[in-house]
């Protein structure tokens, strides 16, 4: 590798976390974001001249690639079986301590689902401008529109996002403590405690994509959700499953594993006004491969139908926690 090539690779690796974070927010898919970043590298590596501003150049390339991928993905998502959720992301590789709270909120499933309402161009402009604070000249170059057009796109995108923007708890520590109490109550099968911690209009929604057991579109109300969770716990404990509390998409959540440590599903918890408002569960095995080896949930359920009843949900061994 030449000195020029070595410098190019080093520069790209420094910017890789940012590029992935842009692509993931535009696409809502870990696998597609990784592919977009890889395609960006191939174009950068074969570029005849080194750009004066690598960050602006690479951000523009990954954005254009992501817009193209999103346009084709829209058709598939319209035909998706049941509710569609983004692929769960356990950690955002892009770190900015001064804006960590904003970045975490923009990563949440609630925010990403709001982004689904935008056109691909609006979504890209919003991500670059509102999340990563790019200037309008850079945004315009990235999406191939004039600065004036990008300002209009940004206004429309902000209007859509502000109309449905989730209101997460401001105090991160309080949010984490509430989530811990909720997950402890679930592990212990304490229906009364679950009901107390759930918002009156709480929802439990699952994304199986037709490739895992499909719940009805959603369960609503603290009473209904707590009863469903109690029944779900019974199935899990019969086959020795474990629950690992873990941040998912910048919010409190959990990873569920079978006795071999293989991933069953993930939870992401939306917490509003001191209560658990929404539980979003990703069960589609196609969306869990990046989290770890994926379990056969159909086999788990068949075994659960015949398993013992009087157990509580376990926690994973330390080595299982370290897998993620």
UniProtKB/TrEMBL annotation:
<dbReference type="InterPro" id="IPR036388">
    <property type="entry name" value="WH-like_DNA-bd_sf"/>
</dbReference>
<comment type="subunit">
    <text>Interacts transiently with the RNA polymerase catalytic core formed by RpoA, RpoB, RpoC and RpoZ (2 alpha, 1 beta, 1 beta' and 1 omega subunit) to form the RNA polymerase holoenzyme that can initiate transcription.</text>
</comment>
<feature type="domain" description="RNA polymerase sigma factor 70 region 4 type 2">
    <location>
        <begin position="110"/>
        <end position="161"/>
    </location>
</feature>
<keyword id="KW-0805">Transcription regulation</keyword>
<dbReference type="GO" id="GO:0006352">
    <property type="term" value="P:DNA-templated transcription initiation"/>
</dbReference>
<dbReference type="InterPro" id="IPR014284">
    <property type="entry name" value="RNA_pol_sigma-70_dom"/>
</dbReference>
<dbReference type="Pfam" id="PF08281">
    <property type="entry name" value="Sigma70_r4_2"/>
</dbReference>
<dbReference type="InterPro" id="IPR013324">
    <property type="entry name" value="RNA_pol_sigma_r3/r4-like"/>
</dbReference>
<keyword id="KW-0731">Sigma factor</keyword>
<keyword id="KW-0804">Transcription</keyword>
<dbReference type="InterPro" id="IPR032710">
    <property type="entry name" value="NTF2-like_dom_sf"/>
</dbReference>
<dbReference type="GO" id="GO:0003677">
    <property type="term" value="F:DNA binding"/>
</dbReference>
<dbReference type="InterPro" id="IPR013249">
    <property type="entry name" value="RNA_pol_sigma70_r4_t2"/>
</dbReference>
<feature type="domain" description="RNA polymerase sigma-70 region 2">
    <location>
        <begin position="12"/>
        <end position="74"/>
    </location>
</feature>
<dbReference type="Pfam" id="PF04542">
    <property type="entry name" value="Sigma70_r2"/>
</dbReference>
<dbReference type="InterPro" id="IPR007627">
    <property type="entry name" value="RNA_pol_sigma70_r2"/>
</dbReference>
<protein>
    <submittedName>
        <fullName>RNA polymerase subunit sigma-24</fullName>
    </submittedName>
</protein>
<dbReference type="InterPro" id="IPR013325">
    <property type="entry name" value="RNA_pol_sigma_r2"/>
</dbReference>
<dbReference type="GO" id="GO:0016987">
    <property type="term" value="F:sigma factor activity"/>
</dbReference>
<comment type="similarity">
    <text>Belongs to the sigma-70 factor family. ECF subfamily.</text>
</comment>
<dbReference type="InterPro" id="IPR052704">
    <property type="entry name" value="ECF_Sigma-70_Domain"/>
</dbReference>
<dbReference type="InterPro" id="IPR014303">
    <property type="entry name" value="RNA_pol_sigma-70_ECF"/>
</dbReference>
């Amino acid at each position: 590798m030449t000195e020029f090539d070595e410098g190019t690779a080093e520069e790209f690796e420094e910017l890789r976390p940012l590029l992935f974070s842009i692509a993931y927010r535009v696409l809502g898919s870990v696998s597609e974001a990784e592919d977009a970043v890889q395609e960006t590298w191939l174009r950068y590596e074969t570029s005849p001249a080194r750009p004066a501003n690598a960050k602006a150049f690479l951000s523009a390339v990954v954005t254009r690639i992501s817009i193209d991928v999103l346009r084709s993905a829209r058709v598939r998502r319209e035909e998706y079986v049941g509710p569609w959720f983004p692929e769960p992301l356990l950690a955002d590789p892009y770190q900015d301590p001064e804006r960590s709270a904003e970045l975490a909120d923009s990563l949440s499933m609630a925010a990403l689902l709001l982004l689904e309402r935008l056109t691909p161009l609006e979504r890209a402009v919003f991500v670059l401008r509102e999340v990563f604070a790019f200037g309008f000249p850079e945004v315009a170059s990235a999406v191939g529109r004039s600065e004036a057009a990008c300002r209009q796109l940004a206004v429309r995108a902000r209007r859509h996002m502000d109309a449905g923007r989730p209101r997460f708890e401001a105090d991160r520590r309080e949010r984490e403590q509430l989530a811990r109490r909720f997950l402890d109550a679930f592990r212990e099968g304490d229906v009364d405690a679950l009901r107390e911690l759930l918002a009156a209009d709480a929802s439990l929604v699952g994304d199986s994509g037709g490739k895992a057991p499909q719940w009805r579109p959603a369960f609503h109300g603290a009473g209904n959700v707590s009863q469903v969770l109690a029944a779900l716990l019974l199935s899990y404990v019969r086959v020795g499953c474990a629950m690992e509390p873990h941040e998912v998409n910048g919010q409190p959540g959990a990873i569920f594993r079978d006795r071999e440590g293989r991933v069953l599903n993930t939870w992401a918890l939306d917490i509003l006004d001191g209560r658990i408002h929404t539980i979003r569960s990703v069960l589609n095995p196609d969306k869990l491969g990046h989290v770890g080896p994926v379990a056969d949930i159909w086999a788990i359920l068949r075994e659960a139908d015949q398993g013992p009843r009087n157990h509580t949900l376990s926690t994973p061994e330390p080595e299982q926690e370290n897998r993620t």
